[in-house]
Amino acid sequence: MKPLNLRNYILLSIKQVSPQIILLIIKIALFIFLCSIGFAVGYGLNKSSNMVLENYSSFSFKTNVSETRQQEILTEIRQLEGIEREIQGSASSEGMGKLIVFNSFAWIFESEEEDMPYILDSVDGTITDGRFPENNDEILISQELSNGMNKTVGDYIGIEEMLPKRFKITGVYEGKANVFISQNIVSNGYIFKIETDKINDFYNHLKTYDEISISTDRDNIIEIIDNIFYLLKAVGFLILIITAIEVTTSVSNLNKVYFTERLSEFAILQAVGYSERFILRRMMKELSIIISVGLVGGILLGQLIMTLFHHLYCVDRGIPYRIFEPGIIYFSIILSIIIFLLTYFPVKKYTKKMDWIDVIQQSNT
Description:
Layout: H1 6-12, H2 14-53, E1 56-61, H3 67-78, E2 83-92, H4 97-102, E3 107-111, H5 116-122, E4 126-130, E5 138-142, H6 143-149, E6 156-157, E7 167-174, E8 179-183, E9 189-194, H7 199-206, E10 212-214, H8 218-260, H9 263-271, H10 276-317, H11 326-352, H12 356-364
Helix pairs in contact: 2-8, 2-10, 2-11, 8-11, 9-12, 10-11
């Protein structure tokens, strides 16, 4: 007797295996969406703060520092490696309140007119509406900041948005980082654009001067951010672990029930001469197909949910959110492998101990 090939058997048994596949699709999609929320926190921080800190450093001289000493310090700093551009101006932020209220810890760049296009280009920005600021009470903002504050070209922003003064928005841009760009001459302030691999050395050198105040103290800022989000990250990680356990347990249990109910079928195959190895290999292939279809379906459904969430919720509110996160796909694959192992090995152990005569007799009673 020759059993049906695996493809035909799956097609004939689609009603039996559909509950496992549907459940796995839903669980994987839910897991992907929950992971994406956690990734969005890190992505938002990176886009609004850390991305700028990777390449920029800003400082100002204290009021009691003489002009001669300022020039001496600047001469020493200009000799450092990795400097791509020096800008007269300042880069600052009004604090963590922005991160909590607007989900954007964005930097305010104040520079002379000729440096503003360079700053915008450094964040891969392109103006989509309006123009560059032409006065010190005008400002250029990112599209996400515009959406988050519900402000656009021609509107005013200021203290209520935790900015140092009142600005008129003259332009909105799309780019890889969220910043405010304003035209303002800062006589004793400087911004340096540094190569990423040299930024730590540059900061360490700046810290040797008592005469300057560093406004982009990356170590301090990152520490503050980590402290604020430590509990959030811990809670989020715990939720994901619980979700992963629930997904693997529920799906693997359903799979075990499905394969256990088919012991009589395996016993008949063994009774007519098929080896234990053949039966286990058939079970492994069938389980692989079920989990593979569920994984692919779950990833597609999860991506659909993420896309809808981004366009229907995040865009209008200016919330940083990436539709595609490769790390989430890797987690989903690992989760599927765990489900496979939790299903296969218990059933394999039970099958190896199975007495096919007893199973057939019990199925006929």
